[in-house]
Amino acid sequence: MEISARNALKGTVKAVEMGAVNAEVTLEVAASVEITAIITKASAEKLGLSVGKEAYAVVKASDVMVAID
Amino acid sequence: MEISARNALKGTVKAVEMGAVNAEVTLEVAASVEITAIITKASAEKLGLSVGKEAYAVVKASDVMVAID
Amino acid sequence: MEISARNALKGTVKAVEMGAVNAEVTLEVAASVEITAIITKASAEKLGLSVGKEAYAVVKASDVMVAID
Amino acid sequence: MEISARNALKGTVKAVEMGAVNAEVTLEVAASVEITAIITKASAEKLGLSVGKEAYAVVKASDVMVAID
Amino acid sequence: MEISARNALKGTVKAVEMGAVNAEVTLEVAASVEITAIITKASAEKLGLSVGKEAYAVVKASDVMVAID
Amino acid sequence: MEISARNALKGTVKAVEMGAVNAEVTLEVAASVEITAIITKASAEKLGLSVGKEAYAVVKASDVMVAID
């Protein structure tokens, strides 16, 4: 499946923390660059996410903000 | 200002394309790792975003999805 | 690519309207059930979206609200 | 109340799963077409959502992505 | 229609700026408290939004971030 | 840090409810005007959010909808 989301950053799962409904998944997408996702627990289980697995962080461009110092 | 958004990736502006209401801004946050943002044209102008400027891509964790091959 | 987004509704492109930065794409996902997406013009072009093409409307569960009459 | 969100799909509640803060609600909006929402537990209770109830899945157009096979 | 979105702030339209696909709408929800929305141009027209009209800014709780100085 | 999000409403924390992964935070941004946020529990702890603290509700303009009666 090819998706319209402009951002798909390849990385490695660093942590998975399960809640009752949601899961928090952290990916390392470059050396010292991590991205944290909150997805449903059902999705985390369906994708078989566990530490060390290769995965992508996918973000729609309209959900990205820009900040400056 | 310190914000609850879990993801703030430091990078450099690679491209800014202005529309009537929105602007598309591309940041390089690591070698060969780019993130594209759609923000309002007013925000892009207020932040003075232009190619080469240092900036952060900020994303709320609940807006990040995870995908596998 | 398999994605964590819980909702991927298969349908047919009914309309594509291009703006300067964004595009508005309408899919029919069941008889008389349409979903409208705003995606970047670049994504609409990359996916080759045009009327009659099969496509999916993909929505993260945390972006869905529920309403009652 | 009439809302700007372009997508309001009428359906029937198929499942409600409560977490500590959030709830996962699944609606059937057409035969074999389901949409899953994560809303706050407080909202699920306020709306009185339970299996069999008629409800709408509401999604802002800028939160819809498009994918192709 | 009663919606799960936790935040519906009543206010008055202060400005409407139309783009090709999107519109930027600014509401004053309390003295000196303004909220800006980007909605589709089609929605802005359907709702008949114009300066001085009463309207609500509606935001899903999972789209709100918190910041401190 | 200066951010592209168009909406940053200053207020006071009225309530914080912790879940396993997420937290629900309510801010009063004007007399009788409250905004509720769902953020990660980790962010709520990192920001030291507690009742009475001054904080901002930050919302990207593309996440705001408009409704009329």
Written overview of the protein:
Chain A has 69 residues and is mostly beta strands. The first copy, chain A, has one domain: RNA polymerase II/Efflux pump adaptor protein, barrel-sandwich hybrid domain (OB fold (Dihydrolipoamide Acetyltransferase, E2P), Beta Barrel), CATH 2.40.50.100. The first copy, chain A, is 9% helix and 59% strand. In chain A, strands 4-3-2-5 form a 4-stranded antiparallel sheet. In chain A, a hairpin with a 2-residue loop joins β3 and β4. The longest helix of chain A is centred in the middle third of the chain and has 6 residues. The interface between A and D is medium-sized, with 13 and 16 residues.
The rounded distance between the terminal residues' Cα atoms of chain A is: 37 Å
Overall shape of chain A: it is globular
Q: What about the largest sheet of chain A?
A: 4 strands, antiparallel
- Any idea what the CATH architecture of chain A is? Beta Barrel
Total number of strands of chain A: 6
Largest interface: E-F, 40 and 40 residues
Protein name (chains A, B, C, D, E, F): Transporter
InterPro entries (chains A, B, C, D, E, F): Mo/tungstate-bd_C_term_dom, Mop_domain, Transp-assoc_OB_typ1
Domain Mop (chains A, B, C, D, E, F): 2-68
Keywords (chains A, B, C, D, E, F): Molybdenum
